[in-house]
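Feature request, filed as a ticket because there's no other form

It would be nice if the structure record came with a short human-readable summary line next to the tokens. Right now we just get the raw output. Example of a typical job, pasted below so the devs can see what we mean:
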Amino acid sequence: MLDRGERPIMTSNPQPPDRGRFIEGFSAAAVFNVAALFIVGSFFTRAGVPVGAMGIAQLAWIIPLWNSYRKKGKTEDAKGVVVAAVITFVLMHRAWIW
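Raw output as currently delivered:
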């Protein structure tokens, strides 16, 4: 259909925007955290820093990762990153307390 001969009128509904997938963001953050556990964790143990500090040190790579997903409009991926960061933080501090 044409609107006064100028533009076609869209009759179908547009696709919703891609918000990403929760598991992709969670997996990306988990991979970064496991890799950092070996790299940063070995540095922390040699320097005498408690392992629980790893939970706070993860902000160095979690915030840029979260921000990149958020800027792309992939809010579900960003949620997965935050959940993985919280789980890592809780587990690291739980190990530090015990």
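Something like this underneath would help us a lot:
The mean pLDDT is 83.
The chain has one domain: 20-97.
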